[in-house]
Amino acid sequence: MISVEEHLESILSQIRPVATVTLPVPQAHGLVTVDDVRSLADLPRFDNSSMDGYAVRRADLEGVTSEEVRLLPVAGDIAAGAGQPRRLEPGSAYRIMTGAPIPTGADAVVRVEDTDGHPREAQFRVEPDNGANIRRAGEDLKRGDVVVPAGTKLAAPQIAALISAGVTEVEVVGPVRVAVLSTGDELVPFGSADGELGAGQIIDSNGPMLEALVREAGCYPVFVGHLADDEGETRKEIKRLAQECDAIITTGGVSKGAYDIVKKVLDGEGTMEFVEVAMQPGKPQGFGVLGKGDKGVPVFTLPGNPVSTLVSFEVFVRPALERRGGRRSSEGSAVGYATRSWTCSKDRATYTRVRLIRDETGGYAVEPAGGSGSHLLGGLAMADALAVSPPEVEEVETGAEVELMLLRPRREIDARLEAEVEELRRSDEENAD
Ligand code: AMP
Ligand code: MG
User: Residue 177 C-alpha to ligand 2 middle, in angstroms?
Assistant: First the structure.
C-alpha cells in the first residue's frame, strides 16, 4: 500500500495544463490568464463628474457659504454620454450629471445638494475645493498598466476591469473537458427505467454525482455515460474518449472481482498504474496518462462504491483537475471539534462523512453523518465535510480537533448554521412568551 500523499504526488507530477485558447473576455469567465493583461486605455477615459451637480470655476464661488449664497447663470446641461466638448465661460455654470465629461475651464463640481437645483439660474451654497467631485482621466489605470496578472482565475471583478480597459479577448488556459464513464453490469442509467428496476439492478448514481463534482470543480463534463462490464466495449469507449476529452474519470471495476474489467483493459496502457492506497474508503485506485506530450489524457479509475468515488474525487481528482485548468489547488479545509467519538481504520487515512453544527465558541462542531460503510448514500446527503484522520489515529475522541475537507463552499455551510441558530433563538423566545 502507498500513502495518500505518495499517490497524489505521483498524479500531480504527471498533470500539465491543457492548451491555451483566446476567448472573448466574457467567455473566459472561470479560466486562468496565461500572461499579464494590460490596459489599452486610460481609465477613466476622460475627466468626468462623480456627482449630479454643477460644473463651475472655483474663482466664481470664492467666499460662498450657506449664509453668503451666490447665483450663477446655467449655460446648459451636460448629460452622461454628451459628445461635444463644451467650454465653461467665466461667471457661469453647467448643470452636469454623474459620468458626464467635464467642460474645459471647469475645475470643480458642486453637488446638486449644495445648490437649489435650478436649471437656468442656480443658487450656490458652498465654495468647492479644487477638483471637487471630478474623476480624473487615468487616475484608476494608465494605458499599459497590468489590469490582471498572469495566472489569475477570471471572476466577475476582473471581467469588468478588462472590458473597461478596452480588452476584448484574452488568452487563457482552455476549458477542461471531462468524460465520466460508469462501469458495471448492474447499472441502469438515470431516467431510463421509469423507476422500474430489474432484479439486481441499481441506478447509476456515480455518473451524475461526478458530473456535478466536475462542474463544481470549474470543469466541463462533456460526456457522461455508462458501460456494462465488457472488455471490448470499455476499451473502445476509453480510446474514443481519449481523443475528445482532457480527462477521463471511470468508476467501478478496479477491485479484485472476477468482472473488474477496467483494470484489465487499462493495465499496461500509457503510464497507467493500479495501486492500493492507505485510505478508507477508496483503497483501490488507478491513474495514468494515455498518449504522449500535449496529447496526453489523464485517466482516473475510481472505485465504484459511491462514497469511495466521492472521497477519491475530493482527494485526487479535484486537485488534478485544478492543475489541468492552470489553477492553484484550493484547499477548502477547516477544523472542527468532535462531539462524539468514532473509530478509524488502522494504518489508513480515514475520511469520515460529518455534519457540521455551530459550536458555542463560533467554531464547527462535527458529528458523523450516517454509518461508515462506503455504500451508504443516505448519510452522504447529510454530510457537509469529510473529517480526515491520519493513518496513526485509530479513534477520534470526543472533543478532539479534526481536519475537515469541506464538501460545500464555506459560506453556504455558515449560512445554514446561522439560520439554525436564528431558528433556535426564535423558538426559545416563543417558549419564554
Ligand atoms: P465495483 O467497484 O465495480 O466493484 O463496485 C463496488 C460497488 O459500487 C458495487 O456495490 C457496485 O454496485 C457499486 N457501484 C458501482 N458503480 C456504481 C455507480 N455508477 N453508481 C452506483 N453504485 C455503483
Ligand atoms: Mg463493478
Answer: 25
CATH number at residue 59: 2.170.190.11
- Look at residues 80, 76, 93, 71 and name the one whose alpha carbon lies nearest to residue 50: 80
Lowest mean pLDDT among 106-110, 242-246, 327-331: 327-331
* End-to-end Cα separation, the chain, in angstroms: 61
Statement to judge: residues 164 and 33 lie in one domain: yes
pTM comes to 0.93
CA of 202 to the centre of ligand 2 (A): 11
What is the 180 CA–ligand 1 centroid distance (Å)? Answer: 14
Say yes or no: 33 and 165 in one domain.
yes
Ligand 1-lining residues (CB < 6 angstroms): 182, 184, 186-187, 202, 204-207, 251-253, 255, 257, 303-306, 375
Atom of ligand 1 minimally distant from the CA of 183: 16
In terms of residues, how long is the chain? Answer: 433
Ranges of beta strands (E only) in 121-277 are: 121-124, 134-135, 146-148, 169-173, 177-183, 187-188, 202-203, 220-227, 247-251, 273-276
CA distance 160 to 181: 38
Q: Which domain holds residue 165?
A: 21-40+145-173
| Cα–Cα distance measured from residue 393 to residue 272, given in angstroms and rounded to the nearest whole number | 31
Give 39-57 pLDDT, tens digit per residue.
999 999 999 999 999 999 9
Q: How far is the CA of 259 from the centre of ligand 2 (A)?
A: 7
Domain count, the chain: 4
Neighbours of ion ligand 2 (CB under 5 A): 184, 252-253, 304
In tens, the pLDDT along 153-171 reads: 999 999 999 999 999 999 9
Does residue 140 lie within any of the structural domains? Answer: no
| Residue bearing cell 464661488 | 61
Within 287-344, residue ranges assigned H as helices are 306-312, 318-324
Q: Are residues 165 and 279 in the same domain?
A: no
